[in-house]
Automatic annotation (TrEMBL):
Subunit structure: Dimerizes in the presence of ATP but not ADP; ATP-binding is required for double-stranded (ds)DNA-binding. Interacts with DnaA.
CDD domains given in the database record: ParAB_family (cd02042)
Protein family membership: Belongs to the ParA family.
Alphabetized InterPro entries for the sequence: AAA_dom, DNA_Partitioning_ATPase, P-loop_NTPase
Originating organism: Clostridium porci
AAA domain segment(s): 4-173
Catalytic activity annotation: ATP + H2O = ADP + phosphate + H(+)
Record-linked SUPFAM superfamilies: P-loop containing nucleoside triphosphate hydrolases
Protein name: Sporulation initiation inhibitor protein Soj
Coiled coil: none
């Protein structure tokens, strides 16, 4: 059965999609089969991982039952994907009378054993799509940009996580908080780190030892149709992501090598 990892934060601009794409492409490098699921109506995960934008089905078609999950899977060069687009922002899933929180879990059930890992990118909101991702996941990773505004709303995120653990998925494990756009030379980054540690303690989790620096290669790679690891493996930020995958490899039972080869 797949190990399912959701990358989530209701704040935009924190490196959520970049982290999800890095996880997917990094895990592939150790020989594992990966499915990426894009639950963000912006559809950026598919772009980052080289999905065909003309693919006829999106994840919404799977969620509303108009297409089978097998037909909807897009086979990209990097990994398999369930892509998204702006139509997901008005999905209509809220009107389903029962088991709304398990729509995603039920929809992907036919292929749950076809992959070693499933990586889910979520919207910058704590909505029904996010709850569906939490309800099906084994692990949750919270990217957090190293600025004060990124801390706003984390109390609500904590409450949502606890609610899901108490009702829909008691096995959801908050793997940790990943600091992004980190500059160890600034007092601000160090202050955010300390506040992130306080939040992590409240949700029985941790702040990862690895911190992700800003890097041009991270932004450039999708435009060149490459993963960050093939585009510029010498970039500091790319090396940070490789180190991050290595750091969590025991937690997510990832064996077979390191993300940077």
């Amino acid at each position: 059965m797949s190990i399912i990892i959701t990358v989530s934060n209701q704040k935009g601009g924190v490196g959520k999609t970049t982290t999800a794409a890095a996880l997917a492409s990094g895990i592939i490098l150790v020989g594992k089969k990966v499915l990426g699921i894009d639950l963000d109506p912006q559809g950026n995960l598919g772009f980052c991982l080289g999905a065909d934008p003309e693919h006829p089905y999106s994840v919404l078609d799977v969620l509303n039952g108009s297409a089978s999950v097998q037909d909807a899977v897009c086979h990209a060069d990097s990994c398999d994907l369930l892509i998204s687009d702006i139509t997901l922002s008005s999905s209509g899933l809220e009107i389903i009378p029962s088991s709304r929180e398990y729509i995603l879990k039920n929809a992907i059930a036919p292929i749950i054993n076809d992959y070693d890992y499933i990586i889910i990118d979520t919207p910058p909101a704590l909505n029904l799509l996010t709850v569906n991702a939490y309800a099906v996941s084994d692990f949750l990773i919270i990217p957090l940009a190293s600025d004060i505004l990124s801390l706003v709303g984390l109390t609500q995120l904590k409450e949502t996580i606890e609610s899901v653990q108490n009702t829909f998925n008691p096995n959801l494990n908050v793997l940790g908080i990943l600091l992004t756009k980190y500059n160890r030379r600034t007092l601000l980054s160090r202050d955010v780190f300390e506040m992130a540690q306080q939040l992590a303690a409240q949700i029985n989790s941790r702040v990862f030892h690895t911190k992700i620096r800003s890097g041009v290669a991270i932004a450039e790679a999708p435009a060149h149709g490459e993963s960050i690891f093939s585009y510029n493996p010498r970039s500091g930020a790319v090396r940070d992501y490789a180190e991050f995958i290595h750091e969590i490899s025991d937690d997510i039972h990832l064996k077979g090598g390191e993300a940077n080869g």
